[in-house]
Write a structure and sequence with these properties.
Residues 83-320 form the Xaa-Pro dipeptidyl-peptidase C-terminal domain. One of its GO terms (molecular function) is dipeptidyl-peptidase activity. This is X-Pro dipeptidyl-peptidase C-terminal non-catalytic domain-containing protein. By secondary structure, the protein is mostly beta strands. It has helices at residues 16-25, 36-42, 48-51; strands at 2-5, 64-67, 79-85, 97-102, 111-117, 130-132, 138-140, 159-165, 170-174, 177-182, 191-199, 205-206, 208-209, 234-235, 239-243, 276-281, 285-289, 294-300, 309-311, 323-325. The protein has a domain at 101-300: Jelly Rolls. The protein contains three helices and 20 strands. A hairpin with a 5-residue loop joins β11 and β12 (205-206). The longest helix is centred in the N-terminal third of the chain and has 10 residues, at 16-25. The chain starts with a strand and ends with a strand.
């Protein structure tokens, strides 16, 4: 079969990066463009306009070429790049799944590439449950005997975190999910952000450079200024976001038990102080952890990456002045 070109779909970045940078300075033409920010202001719940942008992947029944990304939420976890048609050229012998594992830091190689699998997530995946503890650790397999409460200030950058240290090389591939029981004493809704970070053997957060080191004018992650650490360049780990009043799930449309489908068709307000269960699908990941390195789950009420356009400081030697999201 021959590969035929096809326009691809991708995730939508409904923040300043899209409205203020891409729309104003990159997209050309006179036909105008839909504003996701304005549509959300007018129609915050699902309707025909929003649902038209959520394709039902289960209905695709032809061979397709799909690419995905671990690192960039602008691109989407899967983007259709083409379909197959035409003359026989052996394309059907191409492995069904090819992927890479990120290693973070300044390791050589930066990633383990071209890993071949029969399916995704890999069929041999060993699913494990970890439970949150008040000692800020992740407890494997069995929940603590006593329940407890831990809190953070959602009006600031407050958060809570839980860590697990690996004793042997471990590869985590697929779709993680957080199940949280949460309440808020002052409001009837909550925005909940979850991120999975990687820590080195000294407990310091690691980051993954998304381009070859030779392609940038710095030699280490430490040389980046905070405003330069955009997700386009540096990956800090998979993120999840859920507004608690949109917690309803349509199991018939969920593509995986760890990726619940939220219809966003109604708001279910939460009486202040009432505890509710939140099933939060986390962005897909593929990361290798070496012995002594750790996984840290962070829960917060604030975005981990402010979606604003900032200027790279022109005083930084070797870095051009360009607009990027912080």
């Amino acid at each position: 079969m021959a590969t035929s070109a096809l326009t691809h779909t991708r995730g939508v970045y409904p923040g300043d990066l899209f409205d203020e940078l891409i729309v104003q300075h990159m997209l050309k033409g006179r036909g105008g463009i839909e504003s996701f920010r304005e549509m959300y202001a007018r129609h915050p719940l699902a309707n025909a306009w929003w649902n038209d942008k959520r394709p039902d992947m289960k209905r695709i029944n032809v061979p397709t070429y799909i690419t995905g990304t671990w690192t960039n939420t602008m691109r989407g976890m899967g983007a259709i790049r083409g379909w197959l048609e035409g003359d026989d050229n052996g394309w059907e012998k191409t492995p069904k799944v090819r992927m890479s594992l990120l290693r973070f830091g300044q390791k050589i190689p930066q990633a383990i590439e071209n890993i071949v699998e029969e399916d995704f997530p890999p069929a041999r995946t060993q699913y494990k449950e970890f439970f949150l503890s008040t000692e800020e650790t992740l407890i494997p397999d069995a929940a603590p005997e006593e329940t407890a409460t831990i809190s953070y200030d959602s009006n600031s950058s407050g958060n809570v975190s839980f860590t697990h240290t690996f004793t042997e090389t471990t590869r985590i591939i697929g779709l993680p999910k957080a199940v949280l029981y949460m309440s808020c004493s002052d409001h009837d809704d909550m925005d909940v952000y979850v991120v999975i970070q990687k820590l080195d053997s000294d407990g310091q957060q690691m980051k993954n450079l998304n381009i070859p080191w030779k392609g940038i004018p710095v030699n280490s992650v430490e040389e980046f200024a905070p405003e330069q650490e955009t997700e386009v360049v540096l990956y800090k780990g998979p993120v999840a976001i859920l507004r608690a009043t949109h917690r309803a799930i349509d199991e018939t449309r969920s593509i995986h038990p760890h990726w619940p489908f939220h219809p966003h068709e109604k708001e279910e307000k939460i009486p202040p102080g009432e505890v509710v269960r939140l099933d939060i699908g986390i962005w897909v990941l593929g990361v290798e952890y070496e012995a002594g390195e750790s996984l840290r789950v962070v829960v917060s009420g604030q975005s981990f990456a402010a979606q604003r356009i900032r200027e790279f400081p022109s005083s930084n030697p070797g870095m051009s002045t360009r607009s990027f999201p912080a």
